[in-house]
Task: structure prediction
Amino acid sequence: METKPSGREACRGVKSHSTALTQLQQDLYHDRAYRDYPPLSGLSTWLEQDPAFGCQCRFEYLFITSTGEVQPCEATEISFGNIQQEDFREIYKRACEAFPGPSTGCIPMVMFDEVRQYQKVKDQMSSQEKSELSAAIVDGFRAKGMIPGAYRHIWRIYERRLKAYSRRAARVNGQNDCV
Result:
């Protein structure tokens, strides 16, 4: 995985990606032998670009720190709540509201200044205040990156199916999901 501006590397800012790895992903994407296969890769240089899938926070994963903070991913050091202080379902609901759809780009790279500012004030904030500031950061991120090309044409179908599944699951479980 390429360097992201997080953890002890956050002070260094955004690092350029490996041009060799980026070129490999582009070559595989354009190779006719792989035309019938989705552009899967662990490299966010590829995943976060328009022809691929975009940021997968909330859709494929969330990250829970050793202190219980629920982050969008391991590199995005913002929190939607702490599982030691409140129920995970409530935290996940807030994450779902903040991420209604994927966006191109990577949160700590696109929103570097805002995430760094969050890091400076987070220790003086309540879980709810952290969540509100995190949601504002994600709003800014989504405003800068549209739904990736791979999703653009099928997103409405995906949303309808996800809502139908959530309604059906809620009836079975007697609870509400965030979608």
Q: What stands out?
A: The mean pLDDT is 78. Residues 132 and 149 are 29 Å apart (CA to CA). Strands lie at 63-64, 70-71.
